[in-house]
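ARCHIVE CARD
Drawer: 12
Card no.: 0347
Subject: one protein chain, sequence and derived structure
Cross-reference: see card 0346
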Amino acid sequence: MRTIQVAGAAEQTINKSRFYAWAAACKTEHEVGSFLRAIATQHQTAHHLAYAFRIKTIDGIVPRFSDAGEPSGTAGKPILQMLEGQQLINVCVGVIRYYGGINLGTGGLARAYGGTAKMALDAAKIVDFVQMQEISLTVDYNQLDTLLYAVAQHHGVVLDKAFDSKVCVKINLPAQQSQALLSRFT
C-alpha cells in the first residue's frame, strides 16, 4: 500500500470543458470534507466536483466516490479506480469540471475524469504507507535522552512531554517498532 506525501494538481481541457484535479493525503472522512470544501470554495462557479477517496480504518479500507451530478459511474468511479490501481490509501482526489458546451458522452467523461485524476496523482509525491501507532510512556528523568534517541532512530515523532516526578512522553512511531520500544522502556 502507498499514500501521498506531497499533494499534486493537474488540469486539462477536453472539447472546451476544463478539468482541474487535486490529489492529497486525508486520514479521516472529516479531512476529506475539509479538503473538498476548500476546492468548492475556490471554484464556486464550477459545474461539477466529483471525487473519490480510500481511507484505512480499524475495520479495513473504506472507499467512497461521488459522480457529482454526472451520469452514474462516469466521474467518481474512474477516479476511485485510479486510487485502487495504484494501491493508494488515506488519499482523496477531487476533480472540478467547467462545462464547455460540448457533450463528451459517458466514455469521454470517464476518460476525462480518470485521466485528470491520474495526472494529479502523477504530480503528487507517492510513498510507501507506514502504519503509525501512538503510545505513551512514563520514564525517569535519566532515561529521557535515551528514549528520545530511540524514538528518532525508529523514525518516530515526540508529540508531547509532561514533567512531574517522572516524565510522561507521548510518541507516534511506526507500528512495527512500537513493541520493541515499549519492551525496552517498561
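Annotation on reverse: The domain at 2-128 is CATH 3.30.230.30 (Ribosomal Protein S5; domain 2). The beta strands are 2-6, 8-14, 17-25, 48-57, 60-66, 91-98, 125-128, 132-139, 157-163, 167-174.
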